[in-house]
Amino acid sequence: MGQSSQRKPVRKAVFPVAGMGTRFLPATKAIPKEMLPIIDRPLIQYAVDEAREAGIEQLIFVTGRGKTAIVEHFDMAFELETTMAEREKSLAVLEPTRIQPGNLVAVRQQVPLGLGHAIWCARAIVGDEPFAIFLPDELMIGSPGCMKQMVEAYEEVGGNLISVLEVPREEVSSYGVIDPGAAQGALTEVRGLVEKPRREEAPSNLIISGRYILQPEVMRVLERQEKGAGGEIQLTDAMAQMIGTQPFHAVTFAGKRYDCGSKLGFVEATLALALERDDMAEDVRAMALRLLDQGS
Length: 296
Ligand code: UTP
Hints:
alpha/beta; 2 domains; two-stranded antiparallel sheet; 9-stranded mixed beta sheet; 10 helices; Spore Coat Polysaccharide Biosynthesis Protein SpsA, Chain A; globular; binds uridine 5'-triphosphate
């Protein structure tokens, strides 16, 4: 029997959505950042669709106060569905919001102590299995999707995997950065990880981009609640401590990534996705050209 057939499959995914979204205030005062739509789907829907495409069965949302809209979004809206059905409107548009009963779990992060802490809040639900993590404000568009590419790599090498991409050197200090080892195709061995390094100290310009497959042992490291960059409990620091004890690889995502946690990235994603849609592309292109013309 091959080694890969003994690996536990990645069935669970954690979506940390308890951040305060300060960069989008006041929009995010009463609405979670993850519910902001790119055209007609909230950010969280893109992440959940990507998870399901990759074979994830159970969704674990780490939420906080004011985030209940996310859980509502994936509930069945009985009155809405009944009324739409009576009016003979298609319910197909709601299909992606349907989750099998029992496959959505929400846990609370009472205080936003950092991404590492948010992940640790899901430890009881994750249990003793490898699990995926999605940061929904990183919008990953690819075919197959980013997590599916990662699951395929996981089936080959096992252990821990993070998705990475190259950025200009001057941007590295905003991100988690990898110290790369040997590379083969899209897979690169990870020798070290550092969160928000100074530009001159960054080991590379390959940044962690919002998707992870981790082994449950990371929860034991997070249990120590050690604070890192910005006084927060950092996931990157916990992962760094796993290197050497378990296989650790980076997967270079073949696709496009939009940083929708920033306003510029959000606008770029909206335009780029609109320009790819059959029902909008032509009108949006004409509109963009008109606006650019007016601006000159
Ligand atoms: P960000 O650094 O983007 O923070 O978090 P944020 O609060 O969402 O947004 P800004 O920077 O204030 O505008 C990265 C991810 O980690 C989650 C966030 O929800 C986001 O998905 N997070 C962060 C938590 O769940 N809890 C935390 O304590 C911190």
